[in-house]
Amino acid sequence: MSAFDSAAFLKNLTSQPGVYRMYNAQEEVIYVGKAKNLKKRVSSYFRMNVDNAKTRSLVMQIANMDVTVVNSETEAFLLENNFIKKYKPRYNVVMRDDKSYPFIFLSDHQHPRLSFHRGPQKKKGEYFGPYPSAGAVRESLRSMQRIFPVRQCEDSYYRARSRPCLQYQMQRCSAPCVEGYVSDEEYNEQIDLARLFLKGKNQQVIGTLVDKMEKASEALNFEAAARYRDQINTLRKVQERQWVAGTQDEMDVFGFAVKGNMACIQVMFIRDSQLLGSKAFFPKVPNTADEQEIFESFLLQFYLAGNKLIPKQMVFASALSDEDAIADLLSSEAGYRVNFFKGAREEKRRYLELAQANAETALEAQYGEQKSVFARYLDLETALELDAPLQRMECFDISHTSGEQTVASCVVFNREGPLKSDYRRYNIEGITPGDDYAAMAQALKRRYKSVKEVQKIPDLLLIDGGKGQLSQAETFFQDWPHDKKPMLLGVAKGTTRKPGLETIILADSHDTVPMDSHSPALHLIQHIRDESHRFAITGHRNRRQKVKTTSSLETIPGVGAKRRQTLLKYMGGLQGLKKASKDEIASVPGISKELADTIYDHLHL
User: Fold this and answer.
1) Which of 383, 472, 547, 574 has its Cα between 20 and 30 A from that of 517?
2) Is the pLDDT confidence value at 1 over 50?
3) Is the pLDDT of residue 564 over 70?
C-alpha cells in the first residue's frame, strides 16, 4: 500500500468545494480532481472496501496530496481544467487537440474582403464559423469565389493594383481595386449576397438573383442577365454538394464511443442552419477513467481552452453528472444561456444518430490502426531481442539540394504511432555544403544537448543512412551523461532503393539485423523512415522557396524597405545595382559612403 498517511490528511480536511492534486514519489502530479465536498470525495479513495482495481492502483502510487479550496463548484471546474492543462496528469483524461478553429472573415473595408481567419477575433468585421478544419474553410472560399465576384486578395496587394489581376479575367473578382470596373453599390450587393450565403440562406440568395436577372432582361441588359444566370447555376451546383441543412441556428452535437483503452468523441458543428462539418477527437484515456468521466473531462477541456465558440445548444447521448453546474459554467464563459439536449426530438435525434455513427466508425478505424502499430512494435522488439518494451522511437534525416538550404528532421513515434507534437526541424549552418555527416552531427547535438526529461530520451534512435551517418551518432553518444541511453540503428537503402531491401545496421558492431521484406518490424521502420523523409523534404522546400522569394538586399544591415526601394528605383533594378560601382551607389539619396561600401561588398561576395 501507499506510504501516504491518509488518516492524518483527512483528519484536518475541509468540507468546502475545491480541487485536489495527487503526487507520486517523484513529486509528479498523477491525478487532479474536483469536489463539492473535499472531505467526502477524497475519503472515498481510502475506504477499505474500494472494489475498483484501477482506483486501488492509483491510490497505491500516492505519496502526497494537496488541496485548493474555492468558493463554488464553478470555480472548481475552472481550476481543475487549468491544472490538467498545466500538469497533464497520467490518470486524468487529457484532450490532445486544443487549437482554435478557423472562421471565414468578412472585413469592414470600403470594399470588404473574404478571407481565412484563425485566432482572436479582434479585427472589425463579421466572422462565420467555426469550421472543423482549415480545408473546410478553403473549400468554402473556393466555392464562393466561383459564385460571388468578391475580392479575397491581401490588402497590400489590393492597394497596389493599377489594373485588374488574373482573378478578374477569370470572372472570380469584379476588380474593386481599379476605378471604372464596378461601382460601390454593385460590389456591396454582391457582399450582401455572400453574407446571406454564409448564413445558410441560399434560397433567399437565389430568389434575389432571379429577380435581378428578370429585371436586367426586361431592361434589355442581356449581358448582366447572363451573369446573374451563371451565378444562379453555379450556386445551385454548390448547393447540391452541400452538407446536411436543417433549422437549428447554432448547435454542437456530440457522438461518443469507447472501445478497450480508446475513446472517440465526434463533434458536429452546426451554424446558421448548416452542418459545417465534423471532427473526431481521441483524448488520452487512463485506465482508471469511466465513460462519464471521459466525456465530461473532454467537454470542459474542449470549451474552456479559451479559443472555442460556445454554442447556445449542445446535444449529448446521455445526461451529465453535474449538468446544472456545467451548464452554469459554460453559460458564464459564453455570456448567454447554454442549453443541453438529449436528442429526443426528430431533428436533434437525426443529428445525434449521425454523430454517434461517425464516432463508432472513426473509433473502429483508429482502434484497428493502433492494433496494427502495436503488432509492429512487438515484432520489432522480437527482432532486436529487447528485454523491455519500446516506448519512444526517433528518426533523423537530412535534406538539401546540392548542399544548399540543408534541413535536418527528427520525427517521433510512440506505441500509438506518430507523435507530431514532438517533431523538430533544424536549419543546418556552418558546414561544408553537401557534408551529410557534419549535418547529422549538428542535428544530434542540437536535439540532445539539453534533455531535461528522461521520458523524452528515445529507447530506439534510427539514423537514415549507412555506417557513416551511424558513426556520427555513435561518436555523439560516447560521452552521454544520462543513465538512459538510446539503442542506435542505421537504416541503409538497398542498391535499387526499393522498399523491402533496406539494411538494418546495429551500432558499434555494425552487424546487420536480418528482416524479411514483409515483416511488421520492417514496415514500422519504413514508416518512421518515410515520415522523416517527408518532414525533412517539406522543411527544405519551404526554406528553398523562402530564399527564392527574398531579395538579397534584405539581409544587408542598415538597408530597410525604403532604402531598398530607393536603390532599385535609381539603379533600374537589382541587376543595375549589382553592376554599379561604390561611388554610383553612394550617389543615391540617403546612402552614405560607408553604407555604399557595405552594400557593394555584400553584393559581390
Assistant:
1) 472
2) no
3) yes
